[in-house]
Each structure stands twice: as structure tokens, then as C-alpha cells.
């Protein structure tokens, strides 16, 4: 029997690689003769870079950049020399996880550090960029990123705007005279895990601004700023991509990828699976075990277990999900191809206890799944229905 182990991270507890290893340990206890292949995954948010590095054996590179509030930090990016492909995770530089709750300020947070990572990739000779968008602390429409790459965003007095989305209402002119010419040779794919447009009631500011410290008045101001950015860019573009699904990802970084790079937006899990060759791994699998911190009705929008299950189902491979919590509406995941889903808790647990025991609980549930597989095989072959 061949089991493909492909979880996402369990937030605040285990990376995708650590989760995959815990599942492997549990399965091996009951199925010592089984072939077990680990393939950590991510859907574009925090931890996606590590998952791709673990699955592809790409090189990890590090450089000093600025975080969302302009402080220096070391951030990583991935390099696949054979294909001259760089993997840049927004959250490494401008992620919400680097800020304390009282530091969150979407009016000032900038994506400058993401642009600095892209510069490092261009210096290495990158010709293809995979940009993963998720977990951002920002709402600047990618203007910080593009400032690092040579564009100036100017007010009515021809002065550069300060960093952050709060200043964008004052945007009057975009000067790309000094845009890095190497970008013309760079093909960009952007991984997104939402389908929101840039502006409006489903836009970046309204939906994601509150978790980045924005109150109702600030949300309206930020939304006006992104609309002003799109209006200025519309004069330069043949098509206005502000309403493209995914344009609102990561505080408008989806829009920036479309407008400035001509990028292809793709659901994060699909792009990651394509990058790591997941479909080829499925060819040999009899069972897939996936998982992440929570499954609920909203997971159908593009979370890792759903993307895994949909592809596995097309190959008639059953998928079991092991998750920290089954939230409201989780039963809908069966429609997406998940054969069965199990929560990890083995009794009443505090959040701190659940996080500290996550590896142990994950291994124990994986062993239980393996024993169900043994029972099923004794009665007949496991099948996907």
C-alpha cells in the first residue's frame, strides 16, 4: 500500500513539514510495510515557502529586508536554479505574524520588503517568479513592493507618498521611469487563496482590513485609496483588473501582480501542487492523508485539504483529512472529495494544550486511520466513491 501524506501547516503548532512527519509516524506504527511519501503543502499563506522547499528541495536563500512597519528583518525565499525560478512568500517579509496585535496598522503597513525579496531574485537571475499572497499585514495595493522595484507614487505636488495604504487617497501620478528593466523578462504566477475584488463591500479593505487593525472609518478610507490607485493605473492599462477574482488578495497584492507584472493568478493550492509535482505523486497512491488547523464550510474557497481532495478524487484516490477543529458547515467538504474528516482532540482540551500536543494527537489519529484501512483491506479493497 502507498500512502501520500500532504498536509498544510497547523497554525501556531506545526509547520506543514512537521505535520507530515507526525502523520507518517502514526501511519507507520500500524502499517510498517506501507510505502509512505510525504509532500508538505500550502495554499499561499504563511508557511507555503517552507512547504515548497521541503517538497522540491529548492534552495533557501536569505536576505535582509524591511517588515511591514519598516523594521529590518531576515526573510527567506526559494531558488530553483535549473528552471531559474524564484519563490517569494509575501508573509516572509510583510506578514501579519511579525506584528503584535497592537502594532497592526493597515494605513502604514507596506509591502516594501516583498519588493526587496524580488530584487534579490532578479539579482540571482530569476526568469520565473512564483509569488505567494496570503497572511499579509498590508493594504497598500502593492505600492510598497513596486517602490522597491523603481516606481514612484506621487501626490499633486509631485512628492512621493509615504508608505502604506492610508496615503493612497492622495495619489496623483505614477512615475515608472526607473522601473527595474529586468522585470520585462520575468514571468509571474501569483498564488491566491481568496477570490475577492480589489474594492467595494467584498474588497480587500472591507473584508480583511479589520483583522489588520482598521475600524469602519479606516476601512472606508483604505478602500478609497485602492480605488484611487486603480483609477490612476486604468489610464495606463488596456484593461482594468480591479474586479478580477483574487485582485483583493493580500491587501490588493493580487491587483498589483495583475497590473504591474501581467501575472497569472491561480488558487494557491493549485499552483503549489503544480510546482511540487503533486499529480505525479498521486499516480502511485492508494490513499491520501491531508490536514490543517481547521475545516469548515468556508474551506471550499480554496484551502489545502480541499485542493488535495479534488485532485485526488479525479484520480479515484480516497482522501482523509485530519484537522485541529471541525468548524461550522464542515460537512460540505465531502462534496469536494474528502472521504472522511477527523478532529484531533481526544477529550476536553484548552487551546494551549491542544497546540502543545498537536504532533502527538496527529500521530495518534493517523494510527487510528491506518487501523481502519487494515480493517477495510481485510474485508475488501478500499475504493473512492
UniProtKB/TrEMBL annotation:
Keywords on record: Kinase, Transferase
A Pfam family assignment: Gly_kinase
Gene Ontology MF term list: glycerate kinase activity
Keyword flag Kinase: yes
Gene3D superfamilies: Glycerate kinase, domain 1 (3.40.50.10350), Glycerate kinase, domain 2 (3.90.1510.10)
Protein name per the record: Glycerate kinase
An example Gene Ontology biological process: organic acid phosphorylation
InterPro entries: Glyc_kinase_flavodox-like_fold, Glycerate_kinase, Glycerate_kinase_RE-like, Glycerate_kinase_sf
UniProt KW Kinase keyword: yes
Family indicated by similarity: Belongs to the glycerate kinase type-1 family.
Amino acid at each position: 500500500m502507498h500512502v501520500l501524506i500532504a498536509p498544510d501547516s497547523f497554525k501556531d503548532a506545526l509547520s506543514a513539514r512537521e505535520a507530515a512527519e507526525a502523520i507518517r509516524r502514526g501511519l507507520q506504527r500500524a502499517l510498517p510495510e506501507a510505502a509512505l511519501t510525504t509532500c508538505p503543502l500550502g495554499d499561499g499563506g504563511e508557511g507555503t515557502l517552507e512547504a515548497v522547499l521541503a517538497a522540491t528541495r529548492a534552495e533557501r536563500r536569505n536576505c535582509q529586508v524591511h517588515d511591514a512597519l519598516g523594521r529590518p528583518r531576515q526573510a527567506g525565499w526559494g531558488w530553483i536554479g535549473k528552471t531559474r525560478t524564484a519563490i517569494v512568500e509575501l508573509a516572509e517579509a510583510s506578514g501579519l505574524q511579525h506584528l503584535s496585535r497592537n502594532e497592526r496598522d493597515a494605513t502604514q503597513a507596506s509591502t516594501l520588503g516583498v519588493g526587496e525579496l524580488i530584487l534579490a531574485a532578479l539579482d540571482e537571475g530569476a526568469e520565473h517568479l512564483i509569488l505567494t499572497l496570503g497572511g499579509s499585514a498590508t493594504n497598500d495595493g502593492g505600492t510598497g513592493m513596486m517602490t522597491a522595484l523603481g516606481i514612484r507614487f506621487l501626490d499633486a505636488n509631485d512628492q512621493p507618498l509615504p508608505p502604506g495604504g492610508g496615503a493612497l487617497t492622495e495619489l496623483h501620478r505614477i512615475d515608472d521611469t526607473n522601473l527595474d528593466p529586468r522585470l520585462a523578462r520575468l514571468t509571474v504566477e501569483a498564488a491566491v487563496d481568496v477570490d475577492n475584488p480589489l474594492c467595494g463591500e467584498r474588497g480587500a479593505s472591507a473584508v480583511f482590513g479589520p483583522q489588520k487593525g482598521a475600524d469602519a472609518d479606516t476601512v472606508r478610507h483604505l478602500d478609497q485609496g485602492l480605488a484611487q490607485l486603480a483609477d490612476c493605473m486604468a489610464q495606463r492599462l488596456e484593461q482594468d483588473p480591479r474586479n478580477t477574482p483574487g485582485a483583493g488578495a493580500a491587501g490588493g497584492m493580487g491587483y498589483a501582480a495583475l497590473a504591474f507584472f501581467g501575472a497569472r493568478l491561480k488558487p494557491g493550492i493549485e499552483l503549489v501542487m503544480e510546482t511540487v509535482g503533486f499529480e505525479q505523486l498521486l499516480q502511485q497512491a492508494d490513499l491520501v492523508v491531508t490536514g490543517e488547523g481547521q475545516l469548515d464550510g468556508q474551506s471550499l474557497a480554496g484551502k489545502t485539504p480541499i485542493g488535495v481532495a479534488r485532485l485526488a478524487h479525479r484520480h479515484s484516490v480516497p482522501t482523509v483529512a485530519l484537522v485541529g477543529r471541525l468548524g461550522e458547515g464542515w460537512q460540505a467538504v465531502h462534496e469536494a472529495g474528502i472521504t472522511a474528516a477527523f478532529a484531533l482532540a481526544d477529550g476536553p482540551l484548552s487551546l494551549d494544550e491542544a497546540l502543545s500536543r498537536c504532533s502527538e494527537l496527529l500521530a495518534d489519529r493517523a494510527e487510528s486511520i491506518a487501523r481502519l484501512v487494515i480493517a477495510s483491506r481485510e474485508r475488501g479493497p478500499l475504493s473512492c466513491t
